[in-house]
Sequence to fold (199 residues):
Amino acid sequence: MGKILVTYDSGYGATAVAAETIAETLTEKGLRVDLRPVGLEDLSGYDVLFLGSPIRLGQCTPRIKRFLKKNLTALTCMRVAFFFTCMSVTNDELAQELPLYIDPSFSGPNKPHARIKLMENNHTVSYYLKHFLKFVPGVTPIGIAFFNGRLSTEKLIPVHRLIMWFAMFSLPEIENGDFLNPVAIGSWTKSLFCRMKDA
Ligand SMILES: Cc1cc2nc3c(=O)[nH]c(=O)nc-3n(C[C@H](O)[C@H](O)[C@H](O)COP(=O)(O)O)c2cc1C
Fold:
């Protein structure tokens, strides 16, 4: 297998830690890995890409969107896995055909779409993916993971703090704390070894 790029955006460090865990897991297996913040424009030389973003207001970050727009053609020729960190996700079972992984440490269980309450609606797998997948037409990911993240409202810039106070008020399962789960991140990464080798 050729080289792997693990690249990410991260506002407050959680997605960076998830990316480091992925890169370490791949390196331990003897694979050749580069780990860097998103921005590299030349993907030639890489066979596999892991791309990570925090979820912000249901979406990936603007930097990730820009990266996807610039590199879409290259992505269609690579093995690509997407990973996200967030504080709440409910699997509403509308994306069953995708290679999805939901961190088992999330408190929200799987729920049929009809049982999703109003405030949960914009924290579901299908809501997050509806916004994300439109940036990657023609790309067939080998994996898509949602990992539990990290939140510390006192460290956020004021506008982000206000947004997250409102989110916490609306959805009680969103709490301050470090919920990053290296075991889940490592086991998802290992589960992709076979699919990466096909590259
Ligand atoms: C402005 C803002 C909006 C957010 N929106 C969501 C959201 O829609 N759903 C969610 O589950 N978490 C949301 N979060 C929480 C982040 O996804 C979570 O804290 C993530 O782990 C942060 O990653 P980072 O440290 O790499 O930036 C939001 C955080 C901020 C600051």
Summary: The first strand starts at residue 3 and ends at 8. The CA atoms of residues 92 and 116 lie 7 Å apart. The domain at 3-197 is CATH 3.40.50.360 (Rossmann fold).
